[in-house]
Structure formats: structure tokens, C-alpha cells
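Entry 12.
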Amino acid sequence: MIWTHLVLNTVDGCIAWFYLFRKIKPGFWIFLWFCIVWAIQIQLVMQIIINRIALLMSDQHRARQLKWITFVIVGIIGVVVTVVWMPASLQISPMWIEVNKVWDRLKQCILTVMDVCLNFYFLHMVRKHLIANGLQKYKYLYNYNAAMVGLVVLLDATLIGLMSLQVKYAYLQFQIIVYLTRFYIEMANADLIRKIISRANFDNDNSSVLVRTSSFVDGEHPLHTASPLSQGRHQQATPSAEAFALPRFSN
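Predicted 3D structure (C-alpha cells):
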């Protein structure tokens, strides 16, 4: 989904620039393209966030419900945008233009609230089920996502502000930057989770090496059957691999 989002954003950005420099004439099909691609990008952004949340949910049925509810809400918003924005852009009547001025801002506010709610739910899951259970290595993931929520709100607020400028479609250019920034945030999130788990697995391997070394010092051979005492030491020094994976918890 992340790479689909990048490809769509890149293609949409190129077409938008051609349109803004009047290389492509305004018309029904170009406006329909903008509406469809915008709706798909919003769906991808929301579903990517929910996928992060689903990593920490034990009830995958509830995760699927969250995905479908979000899909339906964003789908309805996309249909309304198409119905309102296209007639306004084609300047069919002054009424549609005035309605679009209100709806454009309202739509962006709704999407911002949805984005923030999903991200705060993810932060809640990380804090409650990972950090609170002693997995302090996820603190950086928590702090990073908290900062990114602030950045997303700032970008959306700027986008809403650009809708009030006299320069027509100025927000269309900035919208490309907003979605590229979201792409970078999600890529950085995935990389951060990978590094945390990889580092934990590396520490786990080091613990195993220390146990094997101590066995030789104690005169024990690691291939021989260990005594109950040495088994206890081994179990204490070598935590299971599951301890370092992203666990699933009930909500």
C-alpha cells in the first residue's frame, strides 16, 4: 500500500503540474482523475495507519471492522467530494462554487480528525501494552509518532489555509507535498519498528552466546543434558524470541 501510494502521488503530481502550467486543459475527465486519485490516496493513508494498529490487536475481527468502517466513511467523503468539487471546478453555477468553499474545509477537518484519532489510538496501544509492560525500547516509537501527529495536524491546517488564497488551486500543489510527507512518515515508522525488533533479536543472540560461554567455564558441555540448576540459569539468561516481537493484546 505504501508503494502504491507513492506511485499514485508521483503520477498525480506530474499531471497536476501539467494542469497548473496549462499543458492540460481543464475539463470533466481531468477533474474526475483528481477526485479518484485523491480518494484512493486517502483510503491508503488511513488503511496504512490501521495496519499499524492491527499489529497490536489480538482481536483481528475488530481490526477488520475498523478497516471497513474507515473504508466506508472515506468512501462516502470521496463520493461527496466528486459530486460537489467537480461542478464547482467546471463552474456550472455559483451555488456549487459556494457549497464547495464550505465543503472543502469541512472535508479536510473531518479527515484530520480521523487521522488524529487513529494515530492516538495507536499511541494508546503502544503505551498501554508495550511501554507499560516494561518494553522501554518502544518509547522512541511512541515519541516519534506523537511528534508526527503534530506535524500532520500542522500540514492539514496549512492546507485548509491555502484554500482561502486568491491563487486558484494553490492548495493542489501543496497537497502533493502533504502526501509525500505522509509517505515518508510511514516509511520511517516501518523502518523504526524493524530496527527495534532487529536490535532486540541481536541482544537475544548475545545472551545465548553468554550462556554457552558460562557453561564451558562451569565445566558443562552445551550438547550434554544440563542439570535442573543449569537449565534454570539458561532459562533466566535466554529470554524467548517472542518477548521481542510485537505482541498482540486485547484492547
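Annotation: The chain is about 80% helix and 0% strand. Residues 170-217 form the longest helix (48 residues).
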